[in-house]
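Below is how a single chain appears once it has passed through the pipeline. First comes the sequence as given, then the structure the pipeline wrote out for it. We keep one example in the README because the format questions we get most often are answered faster by looking than by reading.
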Amino acid sequence: MIETITFNDGQTLDIDPALKMSTLREMQNEGILPDGFIDSMMGVALSGSVDDFVIATMNKIQFDHGGNYIFAAYRNAGGDMTFAEFLSRYPVDAFLYVDVYRMILTACLARPSDVAKAYSDATPRQKSKTNSKKKYHE
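Resulting structure:
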């Protein structure tokens, strides 16, 4: 998995394609990721294959928006550069655009058991008032 990107000047920056919900919402509110991105992830979940979905949706992603997904992964890793500054320094790399888009979708969908466990752990459980089992009369 790609964990760093390299600018034209040789500087490398960390990226994290496993977007947090806060990063996703922030990127949507700033207009960097489309409002329908969560719907896209649901499409992947329903299609059953990240690669098939990426191929089917690549024609819907405008080429000049490819850097947006890379920026979201950069911001998710804790980057603080502005979007304009990031794009002014980042080289055009269509293959990387596709790879990062695929990694974001894969990362967001590869954790269902972790999400279920976290939800289960966060859900308060009621304690039984008695330790005995209910007895049924015949």
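The chain has a mean pLDDT of 75.

See the next section for the split statistics.
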